[in-house]
Automatic annotation (TrEMBL):
Protein's name according to its UniProt entry: 4-aminobutyrate--2-oxoglutarate transaminase
Class of enzymatic activity (EC top level): transferase
Similarity comment: family membership: Belongs to the class-III pyridoxal-phosphate-dependent aminotransferase family.
Gene3D superfamilies for the chain: Aspartate Aminotransferase, domain 1, Type I PLP-dependent aspartate aminotransferase-like (Major domain)
Pfam families per record: Aminotran_3
Matching InterPro entries: 4NH2But_aminotransferase_bac, Aminotrans_3, Aminotrans_3_PPA_site, Class-III_PLP-dep_AT, PyrdxlP-dep_Trfase, PyrdxlP-dep_Trfase_major, PyrdxlP-dep_Trfase_small
EC number(s) on file: 2.6.1.19
An example Gene Ontology biological process: gamma-aminobutyric acid metabolic process
Cofactor: pyridoxal 5'-phosphate
CDD domains per UniProt: OAT_like (cd00610)
Keyword Cytoplasm: no
Originating gene: gabT
């Protein structure tokens, strides 16, 4: 029998190394963890581990912290709600803040109105429910997604995800009638996508049985690939021609990251449904599906929801996040910081031939690492740069189907001095790897 845990052993001070060993013994390997240190506290774009070491956070909890760690207004909103009540389950005893947040979201999403919104807890839940809504509203079953996409880890969401390792390996079979076509990021890949879609409709499923096409305006895990603007218009026209719903997954792109409140605003095309999460609620668990009212009303009462869906603390945080984004002009700030970062990366590329493509929309920016001789994706160098930065106290995330992309997800509230310090650390990491 295992020894019982006492308050002393549960909370006794330990080194990072000691907690790392406890983690390996207590939690499964399937929950992959990047850091070998444990967070103690954080503020805006900085965090400190349990041994007192400081890190600059260019990861943002994977795009969750557009308003930074522990923003005072978000913190105050959660604290105030904590004094009132923490849970009732909205489907049992509703609360006004859920409704007023839905009204605020309905007013700002780029969807032709009237619009309705339902809240959930995670991005994967939002995607799962968007698929349910699309099927219920259309009476159809087929779903089309794109290669390189990431839509979550739950079974339906991972079936939409277009990357095998580590998300799909060992978890099949997956739900039927989910299809993938190439993601259009260039003129050539756009032609490939159109040919693949035409072949799909001839060989695998007739368009009259397709409920929805779902895409990320900028692929996140897939490599920060912005969709070709002409392809968004093509998708809209294709959906209109066949009665298919167009779903924009803005879980990672939403809430000012791309220089607009939502990435779809860059394309002048309105989807039928949108999924939202991550930076929506300042680090608390909240997601949403919003869309045209007639579509959202497709499921019968009781078909949507969840015990914790639209949790009161997260709803309070989301109201504060929307206030902060407006008051602090975070869309404009995202564009300014993104422009500065892209200019910096392009300048470094001239001296560092291992840097390949530099791309992004607003502050959703990434750079590829390639073999200077062949131009082939170089995952090893990417990892070396990431780890060299980490040793210097800078958190960076990798992504891409070939694992050769570094993405930058700093809080949009980051102080200029800390942002510039982070770029200097990245430069030092590049220099170490080049040497």
């Amino acid at each position: 029998m295992n020894a019982p845990q006492t308050p002393e052993t549960l909370h006794a001070p330990h080194t990072n190394a000691a907690w790392h060993q406890r983690r390996l013994a207590a939690t499964p390997r399937g929950v992959g963890v990047f850091g070998d240190f444990f967070i103690d506290r954080a503020k805006n774009a900085e965090l400190w581990d349990i041994e007192g070491r400081r890190f600059i956070d260019f990861a943002g909890g994977i795009a969750v912290l557009n308003t930074g760690h522990v923003h005072p207004k978000v913190q105050a909103a959660i604290a105030a709600q904590l004094q009132r009540f923490t849970h009732s389950c909205y489907q049992v005893v509703p609360y006004a803040e859920y409704v007023s947040l839905a009204e605020r979201i309905n007013a700002i999403v780029p969807i032709d109105g009237p619009v309705k919104t339902a809240f959930f807890s995670t991005g994967a839940e939002a995607i799962e429910n968007a698929m349910k809504i699309a099927r219920a509203a259309t009476g159809r079953s087929g779903i089309v997604a794109f290669g390189g996409a990431f839509h979550g880890r739950s079974l339906f969401a991972v079936s939409l995800t277009g990357k095998v390792q580590p998300y799909k390996a060992g978890f099949g079979p997956f739900p039927p009638e989910v299809y993938h076509v190439p993601f259009p990021v260039s003129a050539d890949s756009f032609e490939d996508a159109k040919k693949a879609m035409a072949h799909l409709f001839k060989a695998d499923i007739e368009p009259s049985r397709v409920a929805a096409i779902v895409f990320e305006p900028v692929q996140g895990e897939g490599g920060f690939n912005p969709i070709l603007p002409a392809a968004v218009q093509w998708l809209r026209e294709l959906c209109d021609a066949h009665g298919i719903l167009l779903i924009a997954d803005e879980v990672q792109t939403g809430f000012a990251r791309t220089g607009r409140m939502f990435a779809m605003e860059h394309f002048g095309v309105r989807p039928d449904l949108m999924t939202l999460a991550k930076s929506m609620a300042g680090g608390t668990t909240l997601s949403a599906v919003c869309g045209r009212a007639a579509v959202m009303d497709g499921p019968a009462p009781g078909g949507l929801g969840g015990t914790y869906a639209g949790h009161p603390l997260a709803v309070a945080a989301a109201h504060a996040v929307l206030d902060v984004m407006e008051e602090e002009g975070l869309c404009a700030r995202a564009q300014r910081l993104g422009d500065q970062l892209i200019a910096t990366l392009i300048a470094r590329r001239a001296a560092r031939q291992c840097i390949g493509d530099v791309r992004g929309l607003g502050a959703m920016v990434a750079c590829e690492f390639v073999d200077p001789k062949t131009g082939a994706p170089d995952a090893e160098t990417t990892k070396r740069v990431q780890m060299a930065a980490l040793r210097r106290g800078l958190l960076l995330l990798t992504c891409g189907v070939n694992a050769n992309v570094i993405r930058f997800l700093f809080p949009l509230t980051i102080e200029d001095a800390v942002f510039n310090e982070g770029l200097a650390v990245f430069d030092a990491a590049l220099a170490e790897v080049a040497a």
